[in-house]
Amino acid sequence: MPEHDLPTALVTGAAGGLGFSIARRLAERGDHVVVADLGEDASAARADELRSAGFSAEHRVLDVTDEEQVVAAIAEIDSRTPLSTVVNNAGVAFSSPLLETPMSRFDLLFSVNVRGTFLVMREAARAMTSRGAGSIVNICSTSSFTASTGPMIAYDASKGAAAMMTRAAGRELARTGVRVNGLAPGTMDTPLVRGLGSSDDELAQLAAARIPVGRLGGTDEVAEGAAWLSSPAASYVVGHILVIDGGWLA
C-alpha cells in the first residue's frame, strides 16, 4: 500500500532501543513510520531495517531542541502524509548528585526532555487540530512521580515537567479531537539505562531487590503501551500517564 494511504506515525529518538521498539510496533499495526533521530546514519539504518522487514518507513534527521527544525519537519511530513500519531521519545539521562551537577548538564536535560518535548508536541498539535484528530504520546518516567535512587535530580525534574505538560496539554486539547497522553517506563533494559554505568550484575541485583516482578522491563512492553494509547481503543483516555514499571510505584 502506498505510504500516503497509511496512517502516519512520527517517533522521535527512534534509533535507540526504546524508540525503535515503539517504531517497529507502530509499523506492525500498519502505520507508515517516520524514524526521527539526531544521527543520519542511525536513523537511516533503522528505517532500512523496517523496510527490509516489509514495513513502510522513512527516516528524518531531527534535533528536537531546534525550533526551526521541528516546525519545518512536522509541517513537511504532515503535508505529504497527515500525522495520526506522534511519539515524543527523544530524551537524555544523567546520574549526578545535586552538589555535583554542572549547569551545562542541567541545561542539556531540560533542553531535550522539556523544550524538545514541548516543541514536538506543540507542532504536532498544530497539525492535528486542523483535522480534529490525532494522538500524541509523551515518554515520561517513573521519575515523573518519585525521586530516582540515582541520584538524578535534574533528570527527575525534567521528567516531572514532561508529565505536567502532558496532563495540561491533554486537558487543553481534549475537545479538539487530539488526545495527549504519556507513558512512564520504570527501569528498562535499554542502552540509555546501561549508559548510566550499571553493570549486568548490578542491574540484576536492582531488579531482584526493588522491582516487585523481579526483572527489568522490556522495550517491547512499553511499545505495546504506546500502540494502545494511540489507538481507537483508548479514545476515552486523555491526559493520562500509563505507568509500565513492574510494580515499582505500587
From TrEMBL:
What are this entry's molecular-function GO terms? oxidoreductase activity, acting on the CH-OH group of donors, NAD or NADP as acceptor
The Ketoreductase domain sits at 7-194
Q: Which UniProt keywords apply?
A: Oxidoreductase
Please give the InterPro entries that the UniProt record associates with this protein: KR_dom (IPR057326), NAD(P)-bd_dom_sf (IPR036291), SDR_fam (IPR002347)
* Gene3D superfamilies xref list: NAD(P)-binding Rossmann-like Domain (3.40.50.720)
Matching Pfam families, A to Z? Answer: adh_short_C2 (PF13561)
The family annotation for this protein states: Belongs to the short-chain dehydrogenases/reductases (SDR) family.
Which PANTHER family does the UniProt record give?
SHORT-CHAIN DEHYDROGENASES/REDUCTASES FAMILY MEMBER
Q: What is this protein called?
A: Ketoreductase domain-containing protein
The species is: Amnibacterium flavum
